[in-house]
Amino acid sequence: MRDFFPELKRRDRLLFAAGSFQMILFCGALVASFVDPRTVLGANTWIKPMKFSLSVGVYIWTIAWFIGYLHGRPRWVIALIRWGITLSMLIEMTCIFLQAARGTPSHFNVSTGLDGTIFALMGIMIGINMVLVFILLVTLFLRRLDLAPVYLWSIRLGILVFFLGSWIGSVMIGQMSHAVGVADGGPGLPLLGWSTTGGDLRIAHGLGLHALQLIPLCGYALTLLPASVGTARRIAALSGATVLYAGATVLLYLQAQAGLPLLAGG
């Protein structure tokens, strides 16, 4: 871990800086949550910026780590991905922090012309990110990389399950809410806010998105097995883990769509 951040910076200075800035935003939102008592949909107005900045920071650093394996080739593709993700995520988080400062929801909010424009802009930024990650995935399939096969496949599969999580996000946009069977902002788990009285699509959405980190970590762990464990067995284990992960995401999605909470409460 001592060498992780220097290595991350070496792989891509721009994305390292962009991810680090998101962590600064996280700290700012954390402090703001203690000094600003306002609430939005039953939660402190700075909870959402705090969660999103942390998640987005990890996302940007993950992309930086993957891009490092491409060694800057092809240059125009790498430049498109790194600058596109940096700028789109900066705009996305600016919108979220702006709405938090205004004390109004950032997502599914079209109550005024300004709110509708901000929400639409956020959707465009997410769409741009999905295109850029798809370009990264295609590049990871086309380029010959000096990586253990099981680890390379774990990155590819992690991105594919990431797209599943993104699709669940589009479902939430389609229904203009994350809750099912109840209104957004009702009783929920502490800090996470997941509904305890109805379905909540954010659970499956978040699990799917973080496949981008967790499945490659699984692939890396499989590279540490003894040499007696062949490549075919490692990839079979990875495939099984990916199916279980994607299956859990789908089951949580179906549970939410049935209007059932992950954990029932008052």
Describe the overall structure.
By secondary structure, this protein is mainly α. The protein folds into 2 domains: about 1-145, no CATH class; about 150-265, no CATH class. It is about 70% helix and about 5% strand. It contains 9 helices and 4 strands; from the N terminus they run ααββααααββααα. It has a two-stranded antiparallel ribbon. Strand 1 (about 40) and strand 2 (about 45) form a beta hairpin. The protein starts with a helix and ends in a 9-residue tail after the last helix. The model has no long low-confidence stretch (mean pLDDT about 95).
In short:
With 266 residues, this protein is mainly alpha-helical. The protein is 70% helix and 3% strand.
- Rg, rounded, reads 19 Å
Q: How many individual β-strands?
A: 4
Q: Which stretches are poorly predicted, pLDDT < 50 over at least 5 residues?
A: none
Mean pLDDT: 95
How many helical elements? 9
Largest sheet composition? 2 strands, antiparallel
Number of structural units classed as domains: 2
Spatial strand order of the main sheet: 1-2
Class by SSE composition: mainly alpha
Span between termini: 41 Å
The shape is globular
Q: In sequence order, what are the helices and strands, one letter per element?
A: HHEEHHHHEEHHH
- Beta strand %: under 5%
Helical residue percent band: 55-70%
Identify the notable features of this structure and list them briefly:
two-stranded antiparallel sheet; 9 helices; globular; mainly alpha; 266 residues
Note the topology.
Elements: H1 4-11, H2 13-35, E1 39-40, E2 43-44, H3 47-67, H4 75-102, H5 113-142, H6 149-175, E3 179-180, E4 199-200, H7 202-209, H8 211-223, H9 231-257
Antiparallel strand pairs: 1-2, 3-4
